[in-house]
Known about the structure:
The complex is a heterodimer. Chain A has helices at residues 18-23, 41-44, 55-59, 70-79, 93-107, 120-126, 157-165, 176-179, 221-230, 249-260, 272-276, and strands spanning 15-16, 30-34, 51-52, 87-91, 114-117, 170-172, 203-205, 239-243, 265-269. By secondary structure, chain A is an alpha/beta fold. Chain A has 2 domains: 12-126, Oxidized Rhodanese, domain 1; 157-276, Rhodanese-like domain (Oxidized Rhodanese, domain 1, 3-Layer(aba) Sandwich). In chain A, strand 4 (87-91), helix 5 and strand 5 (114-117) form a beta-alpha-beta unit. The longest helix of chain A has 15 residues, at 93-107. The termini of chain A are far apart. Chain B is mostly helical. In chain B, a hairpin with a 5-residue loop joins strand 1 and strand 2. The interface between A and B is medium-sized, with 22 and 25 residues.
Amino acid sequence: MSEFASRGYEQPDVLVSTQWVEDHLNDPNVRIIESNEDTLLYTSGHIPGAVEIDWTQDLNNPLRRDYLDQREFEQLMSRIGATPQTTLVFYGDKNNWWATYAFWVFQLFGHENARVMDGGRVKWQAEGRPMTREVPQYEPTDYKALPRDDRHIRAFRDQVYQHVQASLPLVDVRSPEEYRGERLHMPDYPNEGALRGGHIPGAVNVPWSKAVNPDGTFKSAEELRSIYEEEQGLKPDEEIITYCRIGERSSHTWFVLKYLLGYGRVRNYDGSWTEWGNLVNVPIER
Amino acid sequence: MSDYPHKLNEILADFDFVTTRTERAELLIDIASRFEPVPERLATPPYAAEHRVPSCESEAYVWSEPQPDGTLKFYFAVENPQGLSAQAMAVILDEALSGAPLDQVTAVTPDIVLKIFGNEISMGKGQGLMEMVRAVQQHAKRA
Lengths: 286, 143
């Protein structure tokens, strides 16, 4: 039984260990992708062969508040030398928060052969594994992407409104202070422009980082079920929406619920509080 | 910017020549490599909350020490070991503002962060780094 299967995850193959990554550094069928909150980190040193995906430059539309489209995703995949058969391994800083955000965006295009390196950048460095400042160049590919499909893992505001009206569960992964409306941004981050504080009616509050151990690895399925099911009453067969401030932290929880606990119908609301907290005349709870 | 401390203008001028994201990152990483935490004679961890920079995700702390000429020498700690941006900002603030006339320190506008880190910096990170500038200015105002 693998390390991750022994933790009881529903889809243990979605994770790879730091050792697995080191064993596959020269595997042409594996592309390692670093995605960070601090944009200096990749340039300062990264896993040999890893490419960088920057969430603002590579994943976001520079004009509309939306993600890249099918053609842009094909160009991105060509640039990093990936084919539909390539195994993508995401990792990054902040307990893989940004790595799971990139992972989620990639799933909008259906690249299912994707993994997350358990423990992220901090674990790799703590174990003294190799780092380099050399930026790799890969032969461009002719990647044909599926059209972006927002239906299954992404929620828009009207859908969230209907979700609230139907009294379906939501998970607010922000800090308790943000959830209670005492602050409009996470602790140690400044205000990012929401006019109202509080949470979407019916949402339970589970800060995203509760899913992670101090060393950056994911908690076991038993521990996760205790957090999400025993403490908050969520059920695997329910339709659930996760949200935070702009949809990055909640992609981490989306990943945990969907892959580690096997919830079949989880969507991430990337509009999140910077949209809901500014919408006119929508219900808010404190 | 003409009223800014001379050393700050010199540092900002270095960023005029930055043309790519990678060049900017390499310049900032080089600056961050000069970071030295606050000496133990002034403070040891866990640092007092009164020295903590509000809104800085990398847990930055600021101290100042009066100099014989009436200026201040600034010291920093950055508790997040992966907080490279905060380390770079600390080095810039120390090298540019330590020893500068206090009225010039208080006249610096926090938007130098955008000049240094670029307009593409996330709002959260940008605001946190601006708070480091404001924290230094608070020390100058109180001196």
